[in-house]
Write the structure tokens for this entry.
Amino acid sequence: MPKKTIKRSWAEPFKIKVVEPIKMTTRAYREKAAKEAGYNTFLLKSEDVYIDLLTDSGTNAMSDYQWAGMMLGDEAYAGSKNFYYLWDNIKKYYGMPYFVPTHQGRAAEHMVSKILIKPNNVVPGNMYFTTTREHIELAGGKFVDVIIDQAHNPQNTHPFKGNININKLEDLIKKVGAKNIPYVFMAGPVNMAGGQPFSMKNLKEVSALLKKHGIKLWFDATRAVENAYYIKLREKGYEKKSIEQILKEICSHFDGLWVSAKKDLMVNIGGIFATRDKRVYEEARNMVVVYEGLHTYGGLAGRDMEAMARGMEEMVQFDNIKARIGQVEYCGKQLEKYNIPLVYPFGGHAIFLDAKKFLPHLKQDVFPAQTLAAEIFIDSGVRGMERGIVSAGRDPNTGKHRYPKLELVRLTFPRRVYTQAHIDVTVESIAQVYEDRKKIKGLKMVYEPKHLRFFQARFKKIS
Ligand SMILES: *Cc1c(COP(=O)(O)O)cnc(C)c1O
């Protein structure tokens, strides 16, 4: 009889076959690089970055199965066999009968917004996402946030902070009238809230309320597999269900969905527009020809669609998603050891540093999260991104900054790319910046683009 059972760690369910060397730089080199990039991590050259946690979008490592599929691209202009294989998998995993490929998620958002929204319509959702809201506004609509209040509090540990507040939604419907709400959207996990999932229970309640009022429900399914994983872990009755079953059940409550394939599907490019509404599908199929390409490729090469179809088969494997979320959690737990202020619970794709608490001496006008992301890069070459006042943009009516409650730096983990040792180095660098935080003074914006300013805005250090 063994005396005691040793706790077993998990490890990645894959091994490394190809490596990509990364450049090691000095602090002086990074100071210069940061200045040249206007202290915006989006404007850095990727070769100057040591560990790249800017985003998990399109930065994933594909499997040998996916790479093998890349050689099977049917690059016909029309009717590529990769398209039909992908379509079959969309029916199988998302349960949607109709599908149009797009080059990215935002192209699908563009079509959904343009087809469904009329001027002055209101589109409620569980917190905004940058590109989603931009497309709603460009189509003449107005986004209204109906997420539960807990989502705006980074210390609140509610297990489903991505939930919609049913009362808020119902009040809104009463106030503006169901006929002025073309659809409600739900994203899961909610990126801007720190990667927080919604529960199946909440989804069912939202769906029932909207059915009563004849309002459609659309799904930003970009990270739906992560949401399914959290439902399996945290919601009663789902412990024994597979990720595949839960994903299918989630999707069954929606009229349509869009996906940035650059996330869950572990590819470098691609997007999905899918629906069970034939009329909306017909319009999208027609519109895609103008903006993306023929409806059987939608701006993608045949090989890209093959990699997406294969990635879909891998994304629902339990060990895969467990390792992905396990790595994010590991980073969070290590940061806790240095008392770094974080958003709770840890997100599915990213750890969020609470910049307001990290740099309490800085006012939101001097861009604490933007500053912190730049300082971490200068310290170690680790690249994160701002998710605060810069990302929130200006109110289109008043022209003033929006002041979001959350002022965060996001460290996002590309799937299957970095090792535990990379995470350790990242944590040590953030701990060092935290030690030196009192010296940090903030930034001044010196260039501001009109749309999605966080991508291209430039800053100067305040001296
Ligand atoms: C990335 C993302 C998008 C936009 O997709 P792109 O492929 O970058 O155009 C939309 N919604 C969510 C939740 C995302 O994470």
